[in-house]
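Please go through the protein record below and explain what the tokens say about the fold. Record follows.
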Amino acid sequence: PEVPREDAESDWSADSWSDYGSRDKPGTTLGRTVPDGNVLFPDIFHTDHLLFYERFRAYQDYILADCKTSEVKRFIAEYLEKVLEPSGWQAIWRTDVFEVLVGVVDVNFSALKAVVQLSEPFLCESQDSSFTLECMQELLELKEHQILLQELWVVYDESGEFDQTALAIEHVRFFYRCIWRTWDEEEEDEFDYFVRCVEPRLRLHYDILENRVPSGLVVDYQSLLSQCEELYEKFLNVRNSISSNDSDSEAENVSMVEGLKLYDQVEHLKQKLKLIENPLLRYVFGYQKYGSLQAKGLRPTGAKVIHVVPWTMTASLLHVLARDKLRPESCEDIEIQFHRDPLAAVNACYEGDRVIICPGRYFVDGVFSIADSVELEGYGLPDDVVIEKQGKGDNFFDCTGANIKISNLKLVQHDAVEGILNVHHGKTTLENCVLQCETTGITVRTSAELLMRNSDLYGAKGAGVEIYPGSGCTLLHNGIHHCKEGILVKNFLDEDYEVPKITMVNNMIHNNEGYGVVLVRPAIPSEMKDASVQETKVGWVDSVKIEENEFQDFLMMWQLCMTVGDILFPALGNTQPTQAGDETACAEGSRQEQPGCVTDKLELYKQAETSEQTENNSEIANVLGATSAKKRQTHKKRLSELGFTEADDNLMSQEMFVSVEGNQFKWNGKGSFGIFFF
């Protein structure tokens, strides 16, 4: 979560730590917990419950600051020297096979180890009985009585003297368990380690804890992490074997080839991990959860079924339902099945089936995963046929069918991680629906297509509609309002993804916290190179950087705004003389408004408003069209580099927007249109 971080004091005096530990406070400020197991170990400090901002502040302000990768261990050691009690405290030494109570007599800060001895009485718990007092003494002698600080859990003490010791060890333990990667040492030493690695991994960890990341993506991330660790260990073994052997034998050459292959595999996995750690990119490149979801296809008998879901079935409802939806001439030889809830009906569908949901409020604990071409239809107005999500889950509706239609329904989302409706593959048509969102709204992923008509969407904490590269989205006569952003268009100018095909006609996009429409795209190298020049020459307008090739459009827009301002507020810029009669009539406005003058003002206001909305549509089309042109230029350049001097006109004639007209943008917090660079 986004939590404002307090400014930290730069000095290391005791006063600067008074709000972070217990050095100047009587008694402990930390809780206690009872260790699990059969042995009566003493209680330990409860430190694994820290909030995101507490860990964030500790790593950024006190431990790592702006250190480089090669400086991480030294910075941690310096931090421990300032806060850790060097002796006089007890701890439980925990490993995968045993737990034993020890006393700390010294600390080797540079090695991040504690010098310990067994406590009296001897307390030990293990998976078998082989860890006796003598065995533990021999083990400690082999280790020279030094064990890693992260393997120690500090014994609880009410005085508060060891609060900072317990917290410091917790931060070290969490860092090496959840943040540090063994390959971080190989990273370039030119960047801030906290910004590059610690912050994104810390945010991902807490996003997972707070159920903000889909469970499938969590599994993917953990699997990738395990694979990368395993391959990196193999790579190190191969590299060490090569460096220790100076001969130029065939076996050495084979090892070098194997090492290069392992290195490439490790780098590939590292990039995947970084994409998942980035909250903006994780869903685009790192997550294809529903690619393997298989459709059922037609029934073995070839028959199609109409599934009816009644909240309560009465004779009159059955009569009108049969008259309107189940007419014999249209439903001949079609089987009719009745279900108690919509999810059961959808799960029973095969290709070509139809689900009719009668008026009522249905509470569903599950996910609608629609992989076949089926139709869901509410019998009545959307407010009369409500499907409300109950219980926690990743998502609500997931569509992968070739041709899905959803109409006359109101969908209410609760406790979800993903959007209210995700179109992963195929085409989904949404008509005359109401969507009450909670997280994001509708997501149209790569290679998918959405047609949304005469619908109302509101309440999304993210974007109302997210449009991914290579997708198609048609929005006709919809309302999108009271979301964080109205429509989010993701275009990554990558050769693997075509620009999205979008049509927007007569939509009302209003009362969103940010922009009505936002384009997310990378800053290409030429832009990064000339960023300072562009900022000086063109500047920043309402948090949106106007590029050189878009500056003329911006000037035209600015001139139009000035013209509209002169019309609405002539006293501010109009120096032209006015006719005496009109001047006299309007001057009387404070005492008695003249009907003709009011009518003229209203007409001018309507004309200005209409002109503004027209310009908003034109601005969106022009800027996003320019982005599409850049995509084509980049693609053409790559083809030229590969030796293709003449590109296919059909391939190069992509246009991002098929049509943008008649849309209205009102009362959006940051304006009608914005661009986000990454």
Summary: The two ends are 20 Å apart (CA to CA).
